[in-house]
User: What shape does this take?
Amino acid sequence: MGSLAMVCVAIAVAPVLAMAAGAPRRPAPHRPRNLIGYSEFRADLPTRFANFSSRRACVVRADGTGRRELAPELVKDEYTWTGFDGWSPDGRIAVVIRGSESPENAAWEEEHKGFRLTEGWLVDEYLRDMQTGALTNVTAVERVSDYNSGLFFWPGDPNRLGFQAIIDGISRPYAMHRDGSGKRDLTAGPGGFTYGFSASPDGARISYHKDYQIYVADADGSHAIHLDTGQPFNFSPQWSPDGQWLMFLAGEHYNCHPYVACRDGSGVRKLADRGGYRGVVTYMEVEDFHGGSSDVPTWSADGRWVYYTAKVGDAVELMRVSLEGKIEQLTRSKPGVLHYHPRPSPDGTWVLFGSNRSGIRQLYVARADGSHPYPITHMKPGWGAMWAHWQPAGGP
Assistant: This one.
């Protein structure tokens, strides 16, 4: 890693675009067989509610084989959906979110073009043991909310989980024990809507955005520090693999770009520009008052690169940028093609992403430099696949 990745310094680095078009490409590699968790859904039904209710958690191998639905027993009731939400660090546990909404509340939301999360919803996070099949609803234990999401395994502590709970319309970061007990609000007291909650790799710090401002705090929520970016819109802070950096989006709503800062909030600087890309992925063919799914950057496993998407000409391309400011364009597409949600593999060899290059929202895997892409989903017209997660090494 370069010196910038080892020591936090607040200097501006002029981005350099590396043109890979004429560079020699490596031979097509052997395809990986890691499991990939993701969500499938209908996109062409008449209403947002109908499309969203069709969502299902699935897994497929990274070579495109072995696709199956995960936890189908959770969607036996009408108006119920599941989605894939992540993995345990050892890859043995899958996180499945299960939700339902009453048709009455859905009709109210469609009429008013906004969410009413205090009525008619029930959203919980389940842990699925990939070997035994055991399924545990951990957010229902000592329940604090009817709307729970964003569950993750706390780094460095196998007996602790983090998640977000919406209470009285306000989202709050929570911690709990591995069995769902001991839930604790990490921003107790009055406050705005918090989102993008995660813990540092050593488990000692947390970060989140609150009313679109970035905060870092101790693991128990104390000593919160506002990270002043000078921008009105800040979104989805993510810790670097070594825990020394925070990466996030900053700018204005629908015109924000990858930024980084040191873990103490100093050294804020812009890494790259998204070229006018709005940063949301529409995933329905009908009007969606929510606007779509946020398309946020991600770190490579070694922390050398930030993968993101940006508008280049009339396409949204897959990109990556180093901490030193070197930018590489990894795809070159026809006008109108959209790439979204890049996810580098745990070993750094591959990148998983979504694209509508075939006319359908499919998932693809390519080498880390974007070469030799191939589809791993085969959705039919009117369907889509999104929100994918690599299984960590060591999983069954």
